[in-house]
């Protein structure tokens, strides 16, 4: 029995396969390992792979887990008995480890791979998609449904919008257009279709209730209750008085003049004058405060009525906003319902499902009582054990699917009620950072409570446990994390216990760099000053440069990094730089690292259309489509595709006399290669599809090589994305070049790039993208304050989506809701900080640029506060005097130095430096019948001899196995098609039939003989190829028979013409290679005399060797 | 310089450029109508013109509906402020006939332009307007980038508009439909004559052979894209790199 430390014991407990478990796991506590362990133990326990469903959050996580699992199972297959026993025990396996068990363990790898349907480790979307594919009828989807691409979905929404504007739904669109008519309408519709079920408002009364108004509320009612009959006159008198008053009063008078009639629309301008715009009394009427005292004193008789009016207007203002919002909500709902219906119908027509559809259809499938029982019955043969990873980011709809799947477990019944079933959920509320995809961290606790109850009801228990130990980080990092989230400003962060370092001795440090200040505003140059101005050194750029310089310094000076018990020099791959968003310092960092000559993995996400290489190819295509597009041509020429210099282009473009650049280029003699390539491409545009056209440029004209040579290997991603775009386009439309260009123009595709942690490069990515990753050194350069905004145009009130008016026009209900959303985002920002901090193993560097520390939620300030309380000491940093929190003794010297060799330094085998030798062209095989030497005896020269011979051969080949009558008929037909004169043809037929009917020759045409045998062999070093007329193979002898229709027949083998002897010699030598150990007998059948002449072996070989073969 | 002009996109989309053109057309019709019949300064008239122009020029049904709604949201304001404009002067030249040309003999240059609208006040001074379908330029943007009305004013003062003759310009204003805001051009702070002088000096600098033409001159925001970015290989360099001049022959 192995003694386990506390941390590993917790992991073992959580991986016990027969106990349903709910696991809260801190960052770095090894939850993926627990998950793989658990699957391995389930398999060891005899569970069939197809009965396990493991749901991960991303496809990358799914393949990562699958790899880890297969790695382990694969290792087992190869281990010796003792080692395997130890591995199983270490895993926590407690069963017998006899030979049978070991044999079983070794088969698991093959079994997991070969299982029909496979071991299901997938995302919930993939699972739902496979469910729908299995039950399309039941789910009401087309069996051939496809998952819609974002771009196609957007185009479809645009079409639907146009259809609405043109059809009977124009009215609802018009009404909604009064609410919103901006450019982002397609984004709004995307938000609508992601939440279709919730648009049920049908009457204004319902909408009013939502905003706390009486259902009978209306514009008229508000007007009637706000304005009294004398108010118009009162205003006129007031305006007169104001005009004589102070500057403020005069301004108020001007504003009041805009109000011409006292109707609904008059309320906002009146409220603007009559109520406080800001401060503690915002929205309150300025009773006895307006107008200014002097003016007030001049109109004492108006004051009581004015105060009353101001009070009524203040009340009306809120109602006014609420009614407007209610009207907008109603317009939104009416529009959204129709839009969603039409959109759904359009998708149905095309058999398209989007991501939400997959989940919702699967949920509906499992919920519909009529079919759910059937589906679950069928599935029951499928899933007994459900494992859910990253449960904190699972959205409510996804939980619904899981709940339905688990229902049978929790009711304890099913098609096979004797089978054991378990649920395993692992997650960390603190790491819930995907609320924008519908995740809700509270659901984590709610679902736990629900499953506890459900399992309890059937006498099962849900084992709840936590993993508190971090296998990843040094105590310095963990102490900082605990300090930060104990501090002020972290309300709403679901802190659940502290972090315990597993490696208590691991040295670690946290550095805080002071904020890089904003640059002094440089005086702007005058517009008319034609100076080529360089941009101001923006604080982000400055910080990015400092970060890059520091990394450079650390690598160059071989700063020691603790590794195990020793220390090794830092390497580029040790660095992980995390930013909050792609827009800020991100690009500056990548540029700065490149400028410092640091190996960097590039952006983890790229805009395909913005890639230089893609634009270059785009310019080329644009020119091909429109030769008059001189700008595109010029762009292509300057690109690496053609590699023109500035001067080249200037010479051609500036000095040209023609209108279009192409005309000038075509007749120019300076660039023959460019012209050839362009002409070749132009000649292809009407025949090649866009994909092939691009490929032609890339491969045949070496475009890819040239682009990569100048732009670096990362250009490859953009190029490949363009190619796959071209393929995607060809699937969706009739492929034409112009069509493709138009399609590209409106495209803003972004692709994710997998950043490989194995290559020795610095990684820069967003915190969201770093989920699940770790690195020895983590730099957070973007910790300054961020403004939190609610960007969605649609927010929910009590679960009902409503339109969010602009800030000044939000009624109380919406303002409160927006404040709640801001608060939620603040909480999520804290969780994001948690994720960011816990990526670090040993060294964490915090920096910020720009704003000072006291504006808005601010990671930098939180960390500073935590470090102060954690006892940090002063430290000189690249941006000034900062702080350092450390643990243990950071190694001062390198103990391991041999790790500096990276794969870049690998010495290449010299073989790769020498070009491969050019291959000699393959020799053409010799035909034995065409070797040198006479083919006939003197006096045997006839016209048509060759044609005659060929015809005899053909006859013999065709007729030898036919019955006599058929042979006769066929021969007659063949005479008709022969090119020989009829008499000669008839003679040939007689000759052939004579041979075939000669009893003395019957043995040559027996059923087991071979006709027309192709033969290949070598003669010296030359290949030969020929066809042997007849081959008679017996166990110890091979007879080669060749038909000859010579007229002058030699009497003895010695007299046979040399060419024929040599031919037979070549056959004999070839056949001897094919049938070693057989006696080889060459023979000629003289068809004219029906004589079979055996040729002695030595005669034919002597003839063959008498002359060199050529 | 190189004689290279970008072409219009293959598949036209309802973009801001078109929206601007339409607003101009609508306002032109509206103002002509008012000049002919002063009683027609109503929101209804404005929207009738809007309807006609949109139906004529916008083939995308959804965009038509949305733009209609947008104009209708600003219609009251446009109608109301039109009264102020009519108070200030009389519409005299509208787009199609407001074409001007000014020769700058010192550098052998001609400026061609079309004014959105030129009114004349009671003293016979010109008033210039420019319609913006979006926001009007802020004073800062005007100071550094948006010189359009100033140069237009200079053209008027120099008699560049044939039908108008040389006249002083008393007032110039951008009319922004989104946000319903008008911004005045600070003719007092930067007189048109001075702007013209500066323009001449800028142009003459570019006529010097050693002065390069830039693809990204006077950028309002760094992320903006320009037509000639790719030709200039922007992306292989960035704005803070030191430019390397190259003499081309």
Secondary-structure map:
The complex is a heterodimer of chains A (1110) and B (249).
Chain A: H1 6-14, E1 21-25, H2 31-44, E2 52-56, H3 59-78, H4 81-91, H5 99-114, E3 120-123, H6 124-134, H7 136-139, E4 146-147, H8 150-166, H9 170-179, H10 185-193, H11 204-210, H12 219-226, H13 231-243, H14 247-257, H15 267-274, H16 293-298, H17 303-350, E5 352-353, H18 355-367, H19 369-380, E6 385-388, H20 396-411, E7 422-427, H21 442-457, E8 463-467, E9 469-470, H22 475-486, E10 500-501, E11 508-512, E12 516-517, H23 539-556, E13 560-563, E14 566-569, E15 575-579, H24 586-595, E16 605-607, H25 612-625, H26 630-638, H27 646-654, H28 661-667, H29 672-684, H30 690-700, H31 703-711, H32 715-732, H33 737-745, E17 750-752, E18 763-766, E19 775-780, E20 794-797, E21 800-803, H34 812-837, E22 840-846, E23 849-850, H35 859-869, E24 873-877, E25 880-887, H36 945-959, H37 964-977, H38 982-997, E26 1010-1019, E27 1022-1034, E28 1037-1044, H39 1058-1074, E29 1079-1086, E30 1091-1094, H40 1097-1106
Helix pairs in contact in A: 2-3, 3-5, 6-18, 8-9, 8-17, 9-17, 11-17, 12-17, 13-14, 15-17, 18-20, 20-21, 22-35, 23-24, 25-26, 25-33, 30-32, 36-38, 37-38, 39-40
Chain B: H1 16-36, H2 43-57, H3 61-88, E1 90-94, E2 99-104, E3 109-114, E4 117-120, E5 126-132, H4 139-144, H5 148-157, E6 169-176, E7 181-184, H6 192-207
Parallel strand pairs in B: 5-6
Antiparallel strand pairs in B: 1-4, 2-3, 4-5, 6-7
């Amino acid at each position: 029995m192995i003694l386990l430390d506390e941390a590993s014991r917790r992991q073992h407990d959580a991986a016990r396969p027969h106990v349903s478990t709910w696991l809260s796991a801190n960052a770095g506590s090894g939850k993926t390992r627990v998950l793989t362990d658990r699957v391995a133990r389930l398999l060891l326990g005899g569970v069939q792979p197809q009965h396990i469903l493991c749901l991960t959050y991303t496809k990358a996580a799914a393949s990562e887990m699958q790899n880890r699992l297969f790695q382990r199972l694969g290792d087992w297959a190869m281990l010796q008995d003792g080692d395997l026993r130890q591995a199983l025990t270490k895993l926590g396996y407690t069963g017998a480890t006899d030979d049978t068990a070991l044999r079983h363990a070794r088969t698991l790898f093959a079994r997991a791979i070969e299982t029909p349907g496979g071991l299901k480790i997938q995302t919930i979307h993939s699972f739902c998609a496979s469910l729908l594919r299995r039950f399309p009828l039941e789910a009401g989807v087309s069996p051939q449904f496809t998952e819609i691409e974002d771009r196609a979905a957007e185009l479809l929404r645009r079409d639907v919008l146009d259809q609405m504007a043109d059809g009977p739904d124009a009215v609802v669109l018009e009404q909604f257009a009064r609410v919103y008519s901006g450019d982002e309408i397609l984004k709004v519709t995307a938000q609508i279709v992601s939440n279709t079920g919730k648009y049920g408002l049908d009457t204004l009364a319902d909408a009013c209730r939502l905003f706390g108004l009486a259902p009978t509320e209306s514009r008229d009612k508000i007007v009637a209750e706000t304005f009294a009959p004398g108010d118009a006159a009162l205003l006129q008198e007031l305006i007169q008085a104001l005009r004589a008053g102070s500057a403020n009063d005069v301004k108020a008078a001007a504003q009041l003049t805009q109000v011409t009639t006292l109707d609904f629309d008059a309320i906002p301008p009146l409220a603007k004058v009559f109520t406080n715009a800001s401060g503690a009394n915002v929205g309150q009427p300025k009773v006895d405060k307006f107008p200014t005292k002097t003016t007030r004193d001049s109109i004492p008789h108006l004051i009581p009525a004015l105060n009353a009016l101001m009070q009524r207007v203040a009340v009306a203002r809120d109602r006014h906003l609420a009614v407007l919002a209610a009207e907008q909500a109603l317009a939104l709902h009416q529009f959204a319902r129709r839009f969603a219906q039409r959109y759904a119908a359009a998708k149905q027509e095309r058999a398209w499902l989007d991501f939400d559809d997959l989940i919702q259809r699967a949920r509906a499938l499992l919920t519909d009582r009529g079919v759910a029982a059937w589906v679950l019955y069928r599935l029951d043969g499928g899933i007994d054990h459900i494992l859910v990873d990253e449960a904190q980011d699972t959205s409510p709809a996804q939980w619904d699917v899981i709940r339905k799947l688990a229902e049978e477990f929790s009711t304890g019944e099913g098609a096979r009620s004797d089978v054991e079933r378990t649920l395993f959920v692992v997650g960390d509320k603190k790491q819930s950072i995907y609320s924008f995809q519908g995740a809700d961290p509270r659901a984590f606790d709610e679902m736990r409570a629900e499953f506890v109850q459900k399992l309890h009801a059937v006498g099962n228990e849900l084992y709840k446990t936590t993993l508190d130990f971090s296998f990843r980080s040094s105590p310095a990092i963990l102490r900082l994390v605990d300090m930060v989230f104990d501090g002020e400003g972290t309300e709403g962060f679901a802190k659940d216990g502290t972090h315990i370092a597993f490696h208590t001795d691991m040295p670690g440090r946290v550095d805080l760099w002071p904020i890089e200040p904003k640059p002094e505003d440089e005086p702007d140059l005058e517009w008319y000053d034609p100076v080529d101005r360089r941009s101001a050194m923006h604080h982000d750029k400055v910080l990015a440069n400092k970060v890059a310089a520091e990394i450079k310094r650390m690598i160059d000076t071989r700063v020691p990094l603790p590794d195990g018990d020793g220390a090794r020099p830092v390497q580029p791959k040790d660095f992980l730089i995390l930013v909050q968003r792609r827009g800020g310092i991100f690009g500056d960092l990548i540029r700065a690292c490149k400028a410092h000559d640091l190996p960097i993995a590039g952006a983890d996400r790229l805009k395909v259309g913005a890639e230089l290489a893609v634009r270059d190819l785009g310019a080329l295509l644009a020119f091909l489509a429109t030769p008059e597009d001189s700008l595109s041509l010029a762009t292509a020429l300057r690109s690496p595709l053609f590699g023109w210099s500035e001067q080249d282009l200037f010479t051609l473009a500036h000095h040209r006399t023609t209108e279009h650049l192409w005309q000038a280029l075509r007749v120019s003699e300076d660039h023959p290669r460019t012209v050839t390539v362009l002409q070749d491409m132009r000649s292809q545009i009407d025949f090649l599809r866009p994909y092939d056209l691009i490929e032609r440029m890339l491969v045949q004209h070496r475009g890819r090589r040239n682009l990569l040579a100048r732009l670096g290997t990362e250009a490859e991603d953009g190029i490949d994305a363009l190619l796959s775009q071209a393929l995607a386009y060809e699937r969706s439309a009739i492929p034409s070049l112009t069509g493709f260009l138009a399609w590209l123009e409106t495209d803003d595709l972004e692709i994710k790039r997998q950043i490989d942690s194995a290559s020795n490069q610095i990684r820069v990515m967003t915190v969201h993208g770093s989920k699940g990753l770790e690195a020895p050194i983590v730099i957070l350069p973007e910790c300054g304050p961020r403004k939190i905004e609610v960007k969605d145009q649609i927010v929910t009130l009590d679960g009902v989506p409503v339109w969010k008016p602009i800030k000044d026009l939000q009624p109380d209900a919406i303002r409160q809701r927006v404040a709640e959303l801001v608060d939620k985002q603040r909480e999520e920002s804290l969780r994001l900080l948690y994720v960011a901090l816990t990526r670090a193993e040993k060294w964490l560097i915090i920096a910020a640029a720009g704003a000072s520390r006291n504006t808005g939620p601010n990671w930098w300030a939180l960390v500073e506060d935590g470090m102060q309380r954690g006892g940090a000491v002063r430290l000189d940093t690249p941006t000034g005097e900062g702080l350092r929190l450390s643990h243990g003794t950071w190694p001062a010297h390198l103990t391991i130095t041999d790790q500096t060799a990276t794969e870049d330094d690998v010495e290449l085998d010299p073989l790769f430096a020498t070009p491969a030798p050019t291959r000699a062209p393959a020799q053409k095989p010799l035909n034995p019948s065409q070797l040198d030497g006479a083919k006939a005896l003197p006096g045997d020269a006839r016209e048509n001899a060759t044609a005659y011979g060929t015809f005899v051969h053909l006859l013999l080949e065709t007729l030898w196995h036919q019955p006599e009558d058929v042979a006769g008929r066929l021969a007659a037909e063949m005479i008709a098609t022969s090119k020989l004169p009829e008499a000669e043809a008839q003679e040939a037929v007689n000759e052939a039939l004579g041979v075939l009917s000669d009893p003395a020759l019957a043995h040559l045409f027996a059923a087991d003989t071979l006709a027309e045998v192709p033969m290949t062999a070598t003669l010296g070093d030359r290949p030969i190829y020929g066809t042997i007329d007849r081959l008679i193979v017996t166990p110890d002898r091979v007879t080669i028979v060749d038909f000859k229709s010579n007229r002058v027949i030699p009497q003895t083998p010695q007299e046979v013409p040399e060419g024929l002897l040599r031919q037979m010699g070549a056959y004999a030598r070839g056949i001897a290679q094919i049938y070693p150990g057989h006696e080889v007998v060459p023979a000629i059948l003289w068809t004219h005399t029906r004589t079979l002449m055996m040729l002695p072996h030595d005669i034919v070989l002597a003839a063959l060797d008498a002359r060199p073969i050529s | 310089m190189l004689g290279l002009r970008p072409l219009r996109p293959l598949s036209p989309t309802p973009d801001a450029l078109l929206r601007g053109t339409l607003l101009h057309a609508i306002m032109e019709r509206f103002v002509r109508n008012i000049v002919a019949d002063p009683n027609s300064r109503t929101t209804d008239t404005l929207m009738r013109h809007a309807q006609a122009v949109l139906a004529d020029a916008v083939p995308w049904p959804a965009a038509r509906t949305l733009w209609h709604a947008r104009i209708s949201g600003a219609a009251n304001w446009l109608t109301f402020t039109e009264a102020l404009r009519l108070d200030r002067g009389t519409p005299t030249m509208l787009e199609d006939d407001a074409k001007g040309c000014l020769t700058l003999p010192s550098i052998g240059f001609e400026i061609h332009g079309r004014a959105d609208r030129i009114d004349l006040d009671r003293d016979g001074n010109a008033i210039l307007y420019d319609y913006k379908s979006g926001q009007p330029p802020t004073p800062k943007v005007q100071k550094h980038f948006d010189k359009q009305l100033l140069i237009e004013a200079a053209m008027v003062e120099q008699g560049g508009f044939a039908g108008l003759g040389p006249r002083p310009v008393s007032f110039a204003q951008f009319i922004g439909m989104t946000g319903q805001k008008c911004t005045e051009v600070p003719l007092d702070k930067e007189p048109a004559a001075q702007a013209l002088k500066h323009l001449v000096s800028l142009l003459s600098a570019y006529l010097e052979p050693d002065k390069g033409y830039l693809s990204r001159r006077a950028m309002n925001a760094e992320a903006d894209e320009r037509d000639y970015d790719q030709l200039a290989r922007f992306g292989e360099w960035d704005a803070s790199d030191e430019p390397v001049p190259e003499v081309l022959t």
